[in-house]
Amino acid sequence: MGDWKSVLKADPVDWLLEKDNPSVRYFTLSEALDKPETDLEVKDVKHEIMNTGAVPKILGKQRVGGYWETPEKFYTAKYKGTVWQLIILAELGADAKDERVRKACEFILENSQDPESGGFSAWVSARTGGGLHSGVIPCLTGNMTWSLIRLGYLEDPRVERAINWITTYQRFDDGVEHPPKGWPYDRAKSCFGKHSCHMGVVKSLKALAEIPVDKRSKDVTNTVEKGVEYLLIHHIYKRSHDLSRVSKPGWFRFGFPLMYQTDVLESLGILTKLGYRDRRMQEAVDMVTSKQDEMGRWMLESTFNGRFQTNIEQKGIPSKWITLNALKVLKRFYG
Q: Which of 67, 71, 177, 203 is the most buried (most CB within 10 A)?
C-alpha cells in the first residue's frame, strides 16, 4: 500500500471497519484496502447497506411514484426532495438493482432531464413534461449524471446525453470579459457569469471522473483535462489571479454528504481519482493532513443534519465518512 500511512498520526482503518456503518465499511474494504468485489466480506457488507443504517431509512420514506416529498419539488425541497436523496443513495453505495432505487432514477430522468438538451433542470415543464429547458443548471447536471452513473445508468442513452451536455456546455473560464452568448449562458449569472461557477466545475468533473477510463470518449477526455487545469490553476481553493487569497474559507470545513456545495476534500478526491499528483495540489493536501486528530481521524465540520430525510453523522465529532475520504486522497496522492 506504499508509504502513504506515514503522514497519519495513527491508523483509523479498524475504526472504519466497525459494523455500525456498512457503507463506510464497504468502501474501506473496496477502496482503502483494495479488496475485490468478489471478496466474500465485501459482498456481505454490500448487501448489508440495504438493511442497516441510512439507506433503508431513506428508502422507507419514498413515495409510491419513486419520489420524496412532492413530485414537483424534486429539487426545491432542500434537502429532502428526490434530487438530494439520489445523491445520498449514490454516496452511500445503495444497490443499483433495487427496485426502489431504480424508481428514483427513472423519476429524475422523466421529470428533471431536459428532453431538448440532456441537461438536468431544477423544475419540471408543466407544458411538455420533462425538465424545463430554461431551468438547466451545471451543478445539478453534474450531480445527477454522477449519481446515475454510480447507480448503474452509464450505458443508458439518456445519461449519455447528459454527459454530452457537460462536454458541450460546461465552461471552465477563469474570468472573461465577454462570456459566451446564447442558451444556456444568457441566464443566471451565478451559474453562467464571467467566471465559471466553481461548484458547476467540480460537480461536472466529478461526473466525468466516474466514467471508466476505457469508456471515456475524446470529448470526455478533453473536458476532463480542462476541468482539472481549472482546479489546478486555483490551487484547489485560491484565487488564481492572486494565490495569496482564499476563494471561500467555507471550503476548509469538510462536510458529508455535500449537495450542490463543495469543499477542498471533495476536489482533491476527484483529482486523485483521476490520477493527478500535481505540485499545485500540495498545499491543499497538507491542509487535509493537518486536520486529523491524534487517532488519525477527521471531524465532520459542516452538515445539513435536520434538513435531510435522516441524519447521517453528528457535527463536531470524528466522522467516518470524512476520515475515509481523507484516507483515499492521501493514499492516491502518496501511495
A: 203
**245 sits in which H/E element:** strand 242-246
| Per-residue DSSP letter, 184 | T
With contact defined as beta carbons under 8 Å apart, do 124 and 188 qualify?
no
Query: What is the Cα–Cα distance from 326 to 136, expressed in whole angstroms?
Result: 32
pLDDT in tens, 197-246: 999 999 999 999 999 999 999 999 999 999 999 999 999 999 999 999 99
Give pLDDT tens digits for 7-33.
999 999 999 999 999 999 999 999 999
116 grid coordinates: 431538448
C-alpha count within 13 angstroms, C-beta hemisphere, residue 120: 30
Phi, psi (rounded to 5 degrees) for 8: -90, 145
Neighbours of 176 (CB within 10 A): 12
Nearest to 8 by CA among 267, 272, 334: 334
**Burial letters 135-174, b for 16+ CB under 10 A, else e:** bbbbbbbbbbbbbbbbbebbeeebbebbbbbbbebbbbee
| Half-sphere exposure in the Cβ direction for 140 (13 Å, CA) | 24
**Which grid cell sits at 231?**
482546479
CA-based nearest residue to 95, from 140, 144, 127, 48? 48
Inter-residue contact 264 to 252 (CB < 8 Å): yes
Please state, as a whole number, how many other Cβ atoms lie within 10 Å of the Cβ of residue 47: 13
Give the span between the Cα atoms of 82 and 119, in whole angstroms.
17
- How does DSSP classify residue 77? S
Specify the pTM: 0.97
Q: Is 246 helix (H, G, I), strand (E, B) or coil?
A: strand
User: What pLDDT does 2 receive?
Assistant: 57
Q: Find the largest Cα–Cα distance for the chain.
A: 59
Report the distance separating Cα 63 and Cα 309, nearest Å.
13
CA 256 – CA 250 distance, rounded (Å): 14
